[in-house]
Every structure is written in structure tokens, then in C-alpha cells.
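Thread: quick sanity check before group meeting

JM: Hey all, I'm pulling together slides for Thursday and realized we never actually wrote out the predicted structure for the chain we discussed last week. Dropping the sequence here so it's in one place. If anyone has concerns about the input, flag it before I start.
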Amino acid sequence: MTGTKDLQGRVKKLTVIGTGKLGEALLSSMLGAQLVPVSHVVATDAEAPRADYIAHKYGVKAVTDNRKAVAGADLVMICVKPQQVGEVLR
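JM (edit): ok, ran it. Output follows.
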């Protein structure tokens, strides 16, 4: 298992799918711990206003298109409710 400090310098693109309570908490924690630079993060949300809020608050790129967001990602975190996973993965 890889330690969290091993993420530094190894993740060129992190995608966080879902920026509700769980996704925002994980995003905030990872950025706060400086595990991944802000410039290496893309976050997604189904709602454009929420994506805009996340982009403004954290300085990350935030979009509504999961497919584009995961392209080229080294690490993808799926942060949605279990009943939403199937739809998100389509």
C-alpha cells in the first residue's frame, strides 16, 4: 500500500468525481495536506453552479463532464452516493 506522502510528485492529474459533502471534504483535505498541487486537480459536479463554487473556493478546475475530466487522470476518486455510481460510470 502506498503512503499518502508518496502521492506528492507522482500524481500529475487527480480527478474528483462528485463534490458534495464527501467529495469536497476529501478535496479540501488533500489540498490542505499539499498532497497534490491545485493545478493538478480537476473536480466534477452534475450541477454547474456547484462546480463553479468549487472552482472559486479551491482554485481547481471544476467541470460537469466526467468523461473529459477523467481523460489522462492518474488517480480518480469517485465521491458519490452508492446509488449514483452506476450512472456516473456510464
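AS: nice. The mean pLDDT is 92. The chain has one domain: 19-89.
JM: adding both to the slides.
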